Records
---
Amino acid sequence: MMGFGILLRKELREQFRTGRLVAVAAVFVLFGILGPLTDRFMKQLFDAIGSEGAGMTFQVPPPSLDGAAAQIMKNLSQFGIICALLLAMGSVAWEKERGTAGMILTKPASRAAFLAAKLVAISINLGISVVLGCGLAYVYVALLYPAPFPIGGYVAMSLLLWWMLVIFAAITMLGSTITRSAIAAAGIGLVALLVLGIVGALPVVGPYMPSSLGTPARDILLGHDPGFILGPILFNIALVPALFAATWLTFRHQEL
Amino acid sequence: MDAPTIALVLVPLVLLELSLMGYALYDLFQEDRRVRGEKVIWALVIVFVNVIGPLIYLFAGRDESRGAETGGVASAPSASIAAILATWPTLSATQDAAVTTTNLTKRYGAGIVALDHLNLAVPSGSIFGFLGPNGAGKTTTLRLLTGLATATDGTATVAGVRIGGTDGRLARNIGYLDQDPRFYPWMRGRELLVMVGQLHGLQGAALRQRVGEVLEIVGLQDAANRRIGGYSGGMRQRLGIGQALINQPRVLFLDEPVSSLDPEGRRDILEIISRLRGTATVFMSTHILNDVERVCDRVAILHLGHLVVEGPIDELLDRYAQPIYELVPEPQQPGAIDRLAGVMRGQPWAHDVQTTPDTVRVFVNDPKVAGPAILPLVVSSGVGLARYERARPSLEDVFLRLVAESGSQITPPVTIPAWGLDGRGRR
């Protein structure tokens, strides 16, 4: 891929200089910390404000590693997907619209390298953010709970979370390549999220969807048996190269 | 919650919040003091919504075009440009064409023909003006020749490389400037040139030297370390020329290179283009005909996707320029212009009669007949003349005539070979 290294350096600098790296990392740090805090102090918060007013009683489960894991995964996956969409939605569309894609691609740089540099840079950004967010969440769990998460399971959960975000970034980047509008690309990403969520609820094919990776990830984290996960994991690993190939085929002869 | 727990919760969040706000404010104020008032409002917004403000600002609130400056550009002295270009490799004397197209065609959808069987041969080392009204197909041609678009039919070669390949050979031999050059606003000018140089395989001292040379040629030394988002349109145009020159291209494609520049900027860019003669073949699309006459050796006129004519400027003028007689009446003669135009319009040798508030221009078919007949007609009209002369037709006159004639009926293009005399098609 001609020019990949140079374009990747440019993309990484762009992630840093435009503040995207800082912003996404901040989101992950914030919601990574909030996960264990919410679970740990929710009951105390309700007790403090009075949970039996107006004839209603709130049943707040006591803090547990189960609850902390659920909060961390819910927070980081929801806001992580939003970040993945934001990072990828304009990645190609804005460059086509502004003409910078044309400027770069009249130089000795292949279209595959142009796309790959973007996807890898976005993945690195998401990876750094997942490490920071999950890392701080781990530290908070270790400080606030009697025992920390098992480290092996926690790393596996973090990796699955990161890969799921990379898949949504790849889907949105495909949308950004098909259209000339970043908003339309984000729309494609959101529709994909919705469709994959619905398909994820179906039997047989459901476990293979990226949005379904959360359940086995939590099982691994808590030391439970995740069941048959090799197939879904391999499928989701293959999904990113497949999406990239579709993006490249779309972009290969596209007029700029 | 006890105090240590509250501290555990609050301190990292507060630190995170302050660092985000601090970063956003630092980034906001680090450059360009001219729009401080506007930035103060932005800063207040950021402080006010400091929980989500930095995110909104970073993702959507930045407008890199704000604060564009026009200063900081010093045109390099001609001697300096000449000295730098003298060290660059020159094109070997050859009769080979730098750009050839054979039946190059581009259709969009079923009915739109943007370019129709274009046949061109641009001599190596020449400065080639590619003319045409808006929508003629100039930009389409440039996009085809630079690989940004794919031809529906026909072939072309640039610097001996057939277009359509993906091995980078075409890109290594060309430079390209878009008609509205836009770059990464967060990047600095020097960084862009370094990146483009690296893509062309330059490294280390050679890269630093080339970047320095190009910055001097385009007069951006003082602005090289500023963010491109703060550049004016003229500075972006200069940077665009710079990035197109970084690989010492054999063929330089320029799409309307001076259309957005002020007179001084135009003069500087035309000076650079002119100095490239012999170093690169320049293929320049434009509709500013005065500029073409100043720097170009040959021109092609395109209209509605068809090549109307192609050849050296002098020969086009000789062949197509109709003699023009200009009549300027003495002042304070009410209706003089209309009376003069009226008597001229009826004459069989008058091809066209154009008027301005103080001049009548008579385009004639046959000056041998028209010359002796004009003055008696002026006398018969009773108008006193302040000036009477046979004017030299301009390229604009030829252009307007040929475009008008080809508008309704497309005829086979006329190519005037005359590659000649100095190997660049210039007399």
---
Amino acid sequence: MPSAAVAEDRIFQALGDRSRRAIFESLMRGEAAVKDLTARFDISQPAVSQHLATLKGAGLVKGRREGRCVYYRVEPRGMKPLLDWIEHYRAFWPERMARLERLLDEMGE
Amino acid sequence: MTLVDTTAKGQGETISFEFDLRHVPHKVWRALTDPALLAQWLLPVADFALEQGKAFTFRRPPIGGWDGTVHCRMLEIEEHRKLSYIWRAGDFVDTVLTFTLTPTIAGTRLSLVQSGFAQKQNAGGARYGWKLMGANLIELLDRIP
């Protein structure tokens, strides 16, 4: 299990590439094999496989072997670190505002 | 203090809050704009100045893959009424933070809006933005046990 920082880095790197984002978003519509994705995008099969390996390494997609084909799908839990950013701020501001009020109470006019 | 989370339901790109404070706007304004006071309630700040376009930074301890530096740029200053600046943290949070002060009988209603979580990524850049916060992803997340 990689540390949170390493996991985040991998996700940011994986999604920092436009082709990988396109593949990821395409998989959000449903499971697909490498050949399906190669047909959908103007990218060679080895390049698609490489992108999928990166997405998989970041925990964003999962593969399922069926005969000679591997089918890929989105792993929704993989996006959790990104959602945590918003949650961080949702908790951050009320806590800071409570501090602001304490400070205002202590300040002179 | 009453705190109301006014973020619209299902809205992924903006968070907003309203606070009713029993202090007059000019005093709240001081707390929002004096670096020594900012350090006491928000975060230690460097290079802060009330000048449009001024770059400044907040610092907090590192968290996750982020070094803890918040890069800011002053956007809008309306004395005692409104303060708005860019709030950029790591590769991923590129937002605009806006404080609005409205006088009330009891003191001040302070509204805080942080928007832009869903901004489109810049072309070819590492910033991904939040468009995946759209219906597809929400729906997928709902299915997580």
